[in-house]
Write the structure tokens for this entry.
Amino acid sequence: MTLPKIYVIFEIMKRIIFSLLLVIPLVLSCNTTNKADDPWAEAHKIVETMTKVSFPELSVNITDFGAVAGDPSKLSHEAINLAIASVSQRGGGTVNVPPGVFYTGPITLLSNVNLHLSEGSTLKFDPNPELYFPAVLTRWEGIDCYNTHPLIYAFGQTNIALTGKGTIDGSASNDNWWARGRRIERRPFHADPDDPNSAILEGSRLKLLAWGEGNAPMHKRVYTLTDGLRPQTINFYRCTTVLIEDITLLSSPFWVIHPLMCTDLTVRGVTVNNNGPNGDGCDPESCRNVLIENCVFNTGDDCIAIKSGRNNDGRKWAMPSENIVVRNCVMANGHGGVVIGSEISGGFRNLYVENCKMDSPNLDRVIRIKTSTARGGLIENIYVRNLEVGECREAVLRINLNYESNEPAQRGFIPEVRNVNLEGINCHKSKYGVWLYGLEDQVKIDRVTLKDCNFEGVSSGGNYAHGQLGSIVFDNCRINSKKVEFTNSLREGTFNDGFK
């Protein structure tokens, strides 16, 4: 009589377990669906789980190490670097820059140090190129090299910060760094300056492109004083747990903030005014977990440009940028407000942009993705909402898979852009609403959705598209007060239905 009871109980348990095995995948599936349906919860999670900087109470003043304010003949970088080294070696703390103008050369930040610029203080960098050599390991336009020491540099450090209400002035102008860039980076020159018939080589920028294209070994990619490319203002390379907060940045020789292969980076409350050539505001490259918030950008190039290496060097490292949150920022002049590319060969995923204001006749685009068949790379999961745009010169959204079509580089690396979502974007003046340029022979722009967007003052009367495109959806969108009745899954050819 006992065996049957045990058998019955066993059968009941089997059925319960089997039922649970059927239900659990459905529950997991529901959770996954909810996660995908609310990307902004993911953005919140990224920010909340980032490691934040923390410093011991130790605090020193750069004047205690010999820094002198107000005298351009007395540079303070040796004193500042000594103060940073001293604090780092003692376990970390804050190096204070008091009010006043401190003329300086290159600064190197070390682990567990907060370089704090007091309100009324300025670090004014001397533009003499000799101060910024020997070269250090960095990247320039996505290609690895040993180049001019950035104004503020860190390599392989952790728990570092630049904070305070002070100013970092790169001192760049058409009389120094910017003129040098135009003269040295792009000019042709002769192998033998005394022989005008000798073989013609290219300027230092084109030399760098040739190094990257030819996979030159790193020990040969070394610039000297005579041919060095312009330095970044801030270049943190392979650093973790980084904060840049409240400072004002002026007149950068090249890109202003260039975090490279960094993790857990916060840029908060920063003001960038830089109208020089290649004067990008903030360019996280191959970085993971980045928050950019409450910043003001007024630049001579892209305000924010996300990157992951150019061509061979980007593919070699295969380090995508990922998990970048941009919120509550203001953009004025610039080639683009928030940009992905063009040095994006390592790919990019997961961008969240919200609650920003953009407005300038010299702001070309609001959201821009630029890549090519020399770059390749997968770009996916772009979420943008609640932007107020007074005006931009060209388009609210521009995706271009044919950027720099004349670049001398190996082709055949197919870029792909998918899952781009814009919601609640209001723009009062532009030439186009959306500008899309796909490949001629295959669909590599797909799943682009605009929802509840209103574009007024569109001088072309509509949008522009070329090449093969996948799903392009307008959901409750208006151009010049007229609802855009257009949803497509086109797989070939240029289309004009709903586009101009």
